[in-house]
Amino acid sequence: MCLAIPGKILGISGENSIMPMGKVSFGGVVREVNLAYVPEAKQGDYVIVHVGFAISILNEKEAQLVLNTLDEIDPETR
Amino acid sequence: MKYIDEYRDRGSIEKCSQRIAEAVTGPWTIMEICGGQTRSIAKHGLESLLPSEITLLHGPGCPVCVTPQSILDHAMEIASNPEVVFCTFGDMMRVPGTNTDLAHIKAEGGDVRIIQSPMEALNLARENADKEVVFLAIGFETTAPANAMALYQSKQQGIKNISFLVSQVLVPPAMESILNSPHSKVQGFLAAGHVCTIMGFEEYEPIAQRYQVPIVVTGFEPLDILMGIDMVVRQLEEGRHEVENQYSRSVQREGNLAAQKILNEVFEVIPKQWRGVGEIPSSGLGLKSVYRHLNAALRFPQKIIYEPLSTNCISGQVLQGLKKPNECEAFGKECTPDSPLGATMVSSEGACAAYFHYQNFQA
Ligand code: SF4
Q1: Of B99, B163, B342, B351, which residue is most buried, by most CB within 10 angstroms?
Q2: One-character DSSP codes across B273-326
Q3: pTM
Q4: Looking at ligand 1, which atom is closest to the CA of residue B331?
């Protein structure tokens, strides 16, 4: 139910509608997504999408930092 | 970076589980709050990658599972009304009420529609101007902003033939309720990454301090969950009890402020009944008085109130981490996803269904 998945913004539209909308690709499957909660989102950003709404923009730098911690452990110090 | 493959990489997963094994010295019991994480743990067999010292308990974090039977009975009463187009998320169709479920109401001719986003309810209202459209708005903090936006826009646009049957739940009060139980075995929590994406994690800091439990905000992929467990274990081993953030690619300390703004506009905190658990103070969101006119519970007052059925279902204890699904006598026998006795066997994120689908249980 709280399933929310990452997708890539292919384009942003909605100047005429009430809320900003984006076309988001989930591994090739493209859906219209409401971007009202990520007003700073740009084309090319990855967003987490839940029940039709993007709820965050994924931060690549943070993702990389966290992944790096796995390589950082020096076996000698254990 | 694709944000999926990196977190399912076998090499990284092995490295992380080795890291946990090397850090553990004592027996530790950790609860993952969110049903999405329970499902991921079962699906990817993560318990088998953990040292035997670590016990995982599955928490109450599935909104489908905790929606009270009385709300479902009310939903079915409304959905049976020939003047109503009733809409809900697909997960809700087979959750048992006292006598039946929404799928049966639909089969018997009720106009029940499955929608993917709450905003579709507004379209249904425009397309069915001669009918009343009612949306069953359930969910945790993750779903609340989407439901709130549908409410906000319905009010803004002055849509007259729409209303919302609201059953919104909040996670932190449920964690406190679990910790307050004298039977609680929980020593650390994986907090739900998408709930925190909306709400941030400041509200967990007093809980970590008061109950001296480490809380790690955690994502949903296998590597996320193992990393979250690793971070909890390190705190436990070092005697720390802080809030840490494993899911920093999505979660910021303050959360999503744009979403919180709409939540505060539409909802207020209320006491809430949780299915199988009972009432937890300040654990729900109800409509503010300026949204009263969109409250389906007032527009369609409930006429029939059923006594809850007594079954052998122990889902209340499963939801609180007091029992595991396979400790239930009905598990895999009288109770299966095809004929569920409790809501935790219905939703794919319910602990019983996750165990049923992914574990090699002996029927
Ligand atoms: S297996 Fe079925 S009856 Fe047993 S606790 Fe789970 S939902 Fe309830």
Answers
A1: B351
A2: EETTTEEEEEEEEEE-GGGGGGBHHHHS-----PPPPP-S--HHHHHTTSS-GG
A3: 0.91
A4: 1
What is this model's ipTM?
Answer: 0.90
- Which chain B residues in 135-154 lie under 8 Å from chain A, judged by CB atoms? 138-140, 142-143, 145-146, 149, 153
Per-residue pLDDT for chain B (363 aa), expressed as one digit of tens each? 788 888 999 999 999 999 999 999 999 999 999 989 999 999 999 999 999 999 999 888 888 888 988 999 999 999 999 999 999 999 899 888 888 899 999 999 999 999 999 999 999 999 999 999 999 999 999 999 999 999 999 999 999 999 999 999 999 999 999 999 888 999 999 999 999 999 999 999 999 999 999 999 999 999 999 999 999 999 999 999 999 999 999 999 999 999 999 999 999 999 999 887 889 999 999 999 999 999 999 999 999 888 766 678 888 888 888 888 989 999 999 899 888 888 788 887 789 998 998 875 433
Contacts of A56 in chain B (CB under 8 A): 197, 250-251, 256
Q: First CA to last CA across chain B, in angstroms?
A: 42
Domains of chain A, start order: 7-72 (2.30.30.140)
Taking the C-alpha atoms of residue A33 and residue A53, their distance in angstroms, rounded to an integer, is 6
DSSP helix/strand/coil, B29 = strand
Q: What are phi and psi of B9, to 5 degrees?
A: -70, 120
Q: Where are the domains of chain B?
A: 314-358
